[in-house]
Design brief:
Length: 372
Amino acid sequence: MIDTPQDHIGLTDLRASRRYFAKFGRITGHLAAVAAMMQAEERLRPEEAAILTEYVQGIAYSFRALGLKYLLVGRDPGHPLGALEMDDHESGFPVFNEILVMANDAQQAARHLAEMPGAEELKAAMVEEIISARTVPTRLQFTLSQRLYYEELQRGHLFWAQNDPRVQWLSGLKERRRYLVHWAVYDSQVNLPTIYLLEIEDTGRTALPKDGRRWPELQAHLMGQALGGLKLLTIARGLDEAFDDLHPKRLRRLHIGPMYSHAFTRQSGPLRDVLAEARAPQGQDWALAWTDELLESERVTTERAGWFGSVEREIFALDPFSGRGAETGATRMERGIVLPERPYQVLAEKNPPGFASVIKYVVGAGDRILRY
């Protein structure tokens, strides 16, 4: 057993570990289809859907790399192997430290690969050991799995603990230019990927991406505010006050997860009960939730700045229903869930409180995605 916090477990069983990674491989594949459907339904703009798909693909690559790293967990190549540590109580995702270690490994991937035999050489040595010694070449298998892991890291495009802001031009060329800035983090408090999309208007003298002063300052500011506990209203107002010539018009945050699985997680609540009752076959025992928060600027006011100047300030629209805007700090908040057909049938029959407004995407036969 691995000594872990009470809400973390180490996947030390080989079959369980491989089922876990296979499960996430399917889930991330479905998420790309869900993003395309959300675009078709006009719940996501085309540029937002493309960015979301890119981050989801990065999550998939990260899981593929970790699957290679822990490919032989539970087998003994002559020394104890580590096991993936996952948050089985809250998120169902790997713990934050796994993502940090993976980033550190990526920095040293080239050195490790230079010191290792090539893949073909390792395969030839395995065949020779099987034929001559008639033993399972566990140590060689482990070396090959680590080589494949470092090769995957070297390819890049993974989802890191911090994915720094990038900017995409939308419209405008002179006095007012509009950009879409996006960044993402792996939230260390809840062990979940979180994606930010910011539509911003630039009235500065130099275009934002070419401004050697404002663009680095904005990147640092946004990463410093990328905390799941902060309301979107707090983030947007802080940005609006820190940069007089950058005007946040639309801020969106997507929390990917938690992942629920009767076989792997111990969350409480209706979804746990639904999965337990569904008794879905292997590969269909899961549900992935997400939260979509959106804050939009409603109007602009002008404030005095200095002796003769003035600056624009945004007034943000808050959710008008039941006074929830002050509570959520957002114009709108939606929750969604992706799950296979059998768990959905149980969810529909039980109809637990609070799920009527949840957007449901159901994976049917042939991996077809249906919306309910």
